[in-house]
Structures are given as structure tokens and as C-alpha cells.
Amino acid sequence: MTKADGSEDWTTLEASMAKLEGAASLAITQLHEDKSISLVSRELKEPLAWLAALQRARSRTFLGSVAHLLGEAPNEEELKNTQFELQTSLLRAGPWSLMGKWGVRVVTIRFP
After folding, report:
1. β-sheet bridge partners, residue 8
2. pLDDT digits over 36-55, tens only?
3. How far are the Cα atoms of 28, 47, 107 from residue 44, in angstroms, in the given order?
4. pLDDT, position 1
5. Is 2 helix (H, G, I), strand (E, B) or coil?
6. How far is 90 from 86, CA to CA, in rounded Å?
7. Of these four, 52, 77, 104, 109, which has the most CB atoms within 10 Å of its CB?
8. What angle do CA 98, 100, 105 make, to 5 degrees?
9. How many of the other CB atoms lie within 10 Å of CB of 34?
10. CA distance 96 to 85
11. Domain ranges of the chain
């Protein structure tokens, strides 16, 4: 996220990721402790799926492979940065977008 002054707001991103990780941790704990669960509910599945998506979005292996492809793109001089710079840019874009969606996932549309 970007603050009004143009600086990046890493605190909000970190707080959002912590909330997601906390929700996934609770789901894992419940699944581990409640041996009577034979069918996993949506409430337990969702935070685990979101955590898996977050882990992929911030994986250096995934980011490195995308950065490599971008760095090799023809006629894209603006992408000819170092591998680390490309990975960092991707790291900013991926989790920001994902966490924005995580934040609004509970919005429901109600019809009269």
C-alpha cells in the first residue's frame, strides 16, 4: 500500500499477513486437536488456502523464476534490472494484491 505522501506502508502489509497467518494457525490447531473432524468446513479451509496463496506469492523461488523471465524479455529495457530488484518489485506487487483481496473477502452482497 502507498501512503498519501507516496511512501510505502509496510506496516499495514505486515499486519494483514499476520492476521492471515493467525487465522490459518487457528484452523491448523483446530484440525490437529479435534479428532472428530471428518469433513473440513469452509471456515477452516479458507484461511489455509489463503495462506498457501500468500506463501506462493512471496516465495523467492517463484519470484526468481518470474524475474528471470522478465529479465530475458526482448525489447523491455525498463525490466533489465538486477535479479534482486526484479524479485523485490514482484514481492511488493504480489502480496499487496493478495492481502487486499484477503481484507475484503468477507464482504457479502445481501438482497432484500
Report:
1. 2
2. 988 999 889 999 999 999 99
3. 8, 6, 18
4. 59
5. strand
6. 6
7. 52
8. 90
9. 9
10. 17
11. 10-104
Q: Is 98 exposed, middle or buried (0-12, 13-18, 19+ CB in 10 A)?
A: buried
Cα-trace Rg, the chain: 18
User: For residues 83 and 67, what is the distance between their CA atoms, to the nearest angstrom?
Assistant: 6
The answer for residues whose C-beta is within 8 angstroms of residue 63's C-beta and 6 or more apart is 86, 87, 90, 91, 94
Residue 80 has pLDDT above 50, yes or no: yes
Write the burial class of residue 74 (CB in 10 Å: 0-12 exposed, 13-18 middle, 19+ buried).
Answer: exposed
The residue with cell 499476520 is 18
CB-CB contact of 31 with 37 (8 Å): yes
Q: What is the DSSP letter of 78?
A: G
Task: Find cell 486437536 and name the residue.
Answer: 33
Contact assessment for residue 56 and residue 62, using Cβ atoms and an 8 Å cutoff = yes
pLDDT of residue 98: 83
Query: Which position has the grid cell 526484479?
Result: 86
Q: Grid coordinates 507516496 are at which residue?
A: 6
Q: Name the one residue in this structure whose C-alpha cell is 484440525.
A: 31
